[in-house]
Specification:
The chain is 24% helix and 32% strand. It has an 8-stranded mixed β-sheet with strand order 5-4-8-2-1-11-14-13. Helix 5 packs parallel to helix 6 and helix 7 packs across helix 9.
């Protein structure tokens, strides 16, 4: 998902101020029981593992009303008879059925506790059906403050879409609304007016007609995170192509408003360029079974799995602007590249707790400059990622607080990407770095992970103890400062503003000669030939420099 900070372009200022205000509000307020029920693995969640969903709903755009049910199949892994399902007001659960019996439900805000009647034997697979209805929260500024976006196209046709990261999938459908447990597969059935089309995740199985309405049935065969599920409704035109990928033929489908069809056929060429670059850097696209789609929506865009949504107005850059200020950001459509990059980091590798959201956003922001690296070279990619440093605020740590559904600083995007760019310099061997990125996607294929798992993997594969490095950039707001002085033909240097045991080496040039420097928190010295020595720190390292 996208979230940017104050130093961006004028178009983003309102979003930035809104986000910062929300962050300040959450910091001033104490966390509530609702925060814990939403953000933790409660006892009523922990005893069962998701295996299958069938989300079956009717969407009525004219009244902004939805109704239907979600059939939830799960495997019992511990003895328990209370089960938590999440659904946010004003939507209401009308009944819950298991084994033909209606069950008692206790409502506690956004969490709903179902008292099960039948025996839940360990190892068995059970299911229940949750019926619900209502007018879901309307998106205020999708995707930052999401929900349902109810809009119209230029011909007056309904143009509807969902977005819900952070806010939670339970804003529009009943589910186990915590990221640690991804459902193995899913059927999404959406009934819409007959003049419209629904595009959701996975592959279209069938369309059934019912007088003035029709139902689209979409099958998702890969594990999917809950906020990655989406509904997109409009008067769409469709075109497609087959990409010859690492794992074989990959279908790439595009759904756009009919007036934009010819424009999209030209503009969406960035999609196959993206696929080629990211399969090179990250390994095979993770969802060959479900295909890849770009779907036009009435908001900017979002990384919905195998159903990436697009609203960048068919412009290069971010709504026609370059977020790096270097010119390189206008070489590609930002939404196509960034949101598709999330297929590897967010949808394939998914955070267990939103406090670790940097795993999604840091790597995906970094993917932008890797796209440039693939097509325009290492210099261009470095220009771009370094240019995005202007957007870093260092307002609070990148990692948020665990178990209360709190994400960290918006710096997870471009501080995160510059941290990874710095790490690439430490590893030195670009092929080794590429294999680490590919290895992450293979090792944690279709898994939910913690920051520690990512840290440990990179440390092991790089052969470098990166504990202090990650502590510095992820858990503090301080940027390492290289403090130095030159006098008496001697260079004196050290790191300041650092965590314990931070001793990252850094590349410098002394009178145009490149070499490594190995600072620590203690002063070190190096003999020089002259006091007129000119020292420059490699710009690829995200550090500050102070000459005394």
């Amino acid at each position: 998902m996208l979230k940017f900070t104050l130093a961006f372009i004028i178009l983003l200022i309102s979003e930035t101020r809104y986000i910062q205000a929300q962050d300040l509000l959450s910091e001033k307020n104490n966390f509530t029981k609702q925060d814990t029920l939403r953000g933790s693995i409660t006892p009523e969640r922990s005893w069962w593992n998701l295996t299958y969903y069938h989300l079956d709903i009717v969407v009525k755009p004219d009244s902004k009303f939805i109704s239907g049910s979600n059939t939830i199949e799960y495997k019992v892994i511990a003895e328990q008879k209370d089960l938590q399902i999440d659904l946010q007001p004003p939507l209401k659960i009308t009944k819950v059925i298991q084994d033909g019996e209606e069950l008692n439900v206790t409502h506690e805000g956004k969490a709903h506790f179902i008292k099960l009647n039948s025996v839940q034997n360990i190892g068995t697979v059970k299911s229940l059906q949750v019926f619900y209805e209502g007018q879901p929260k309307e998106a205020i500024r999708a995707p930052w403050d999401g929900g349902f976006s109810w809009s119209k196209d230029s011909h007056g046709n309904d143009f509807v879409a969902t977005s819900c990261q952070g806010l939670g999938a339970s804003v529009w459908w009943p589910c186990k609304d915590h990221m640690y447990d991804e459902v193995d597969s899913m059927l999404i059935s959406v009934n819409v007016p007959k003049n419209l089309m629904d595009v959701s995740n996975g592959r279209l199985r069938s369309i059934k007609h019912y007088g003035d309405t029709k139902t689209y049935h979409w099958v998702v065969k890969n594990p999917i995170n809950n906020y990655g599920v989406n509904v997109n409704i409009g008067d769409y035109a469709h075109f497609s192509e087959v990409y010859d990928g690492i794992s074989g033929n990959l279908t790439m489908d595009y759904y756009v408003l009919k007036d934009n069809l010819e424009k999209a056929k030209e503009h969406f060429k960035d999609a196959t360029k993206m696929m080629e670059a990211f399969e090179h850097w990250f390994g095979p696209y993770p969802f060959y079974k479900d295909g890849f789609k770009l779907v036009e929506v009435p908001y900017l865009g979002m990384e919905h799995q195998s159903s990436v949504t697009y609203g960048n107005q068919y412009k290069k850059g971010y709504l026609g602007n370059d977020l790096s200020g270097t010119g390189w950001g206008l070489k590609f459509d930002f939404i196509i590249i960034h949101e598709s990059g999330h297929e590897w980091f967010a949808n394939n590798i998914t955070y267990k707790d939103i406090a670790d959201m940097w795993i999604h956003e840091g790597f995906t922001a970094y993917s932008e400059n890797l796209f440039l690296d693939y097509y325009y070279g290492k210099q261009a990619s470095a220009d771009y990622v370094i240019g995005t440093r202007q957007n870093i605020q260092n307002d609070k740590p990148i990692i948020g607080q665990y178990n209360v559904n709190q994400e960290g600083s918006g710096d997870m995007y471009y501080k995160g990407s510059n941290m990874l760019h710095t790490l690439r310099q430490l590893i030195e061997d670009d092929e080794k770095w590429r294999q680490i990125l590919r290895g992450l996607n293979l090792t944690f294929y279709h898994q939910t992970v913690t920051t520690k798992q990512i840290e440990n993997y990179i440390s092991t594969e790089s052969g470098i103890d990166l504990t202090a490095f990650f502590n510095q950039y992820l858990r503090t707001t301080a940027i390492p400062n290289l403090e130095y002085n030159i006098e008496n033909k001697e260079l004196k240097y050290r790191w300041t503003h650092i965590v314990d045991n931070f001793d990252m080496p850094v590349q410098i040039t002394i009178n145009d000669k490149e070499q490594w420097l190995f600072p620590s928190s203690e002063w070190k010295t190096m003999p020089l030939k002259s006091n007129k020595t000119v020292l420059k720190v490699d710009r690829d390292f995200y550090v500050n420099v102070t000459k005394l």
